[in-house]
Amino acid sequence: MGKNRGSAAGLRRLLVELAGERGAGATFCPSEVARRLARDWRPLMPAVRAAAARLVDDGGLSCTQRGEPADPRLARGPIRLGAPGKGDQPPAMTKGRTRTPSRTRSPG
Question: Which residues contact 27 (CB under 8 A, 6 or more apart)?
Fold first, then answer.
């Protein structure tokens, strides 16, 4: 493992790097970052998800689960990460998943 690549900042750099390699509209599994760092990658997954969550919060990555916006901290099971699309904003959170706030209609 390269020096500081397993640090929070190093993980964020790798996440952004992989999103850039994949390009717009493409996604990847967070385990791909962990696998780049260690043969025994599973113990790294909580730190990778935490780094991804920070990037999602900052608008640097998008996160989905089953095609819907998700929060990497709360989602259980597989998630996908990618470069944010135009107009992507961190979605409002619900139970382990996220949703975009609904727009209210004005009467009349």
Answer: 64, 80, 81, 82
CA 44 vs CA 21, 23, 25, 81: distances in Å: 21, 24, 26, 16
Tell me: the pLDDT tens digits for 58-75?
Answer: 999 999 999 999 999 999
Phi, psi of 55 (to 5 degrees): -65, -40
Angle at 44 between CA 38 and CA 50, to 5 degrees: 140
- State the maximum Cα–Cα separation within the chain, in Å, rounded to a whole number: 62
List, for residues 21-58, the tens digit of each pLDDT value: 999 899 999 999 999 999 999 999 999 999 999 999 99
- Residue 15: give the domain boundaries: 8-84+91-99
In a domain, 3, yes or no: no
Pairing outcome for strands 80-82 and 92-93: unpaired
Strands 92-93 and 98-99, sheet pairing = antiparallel
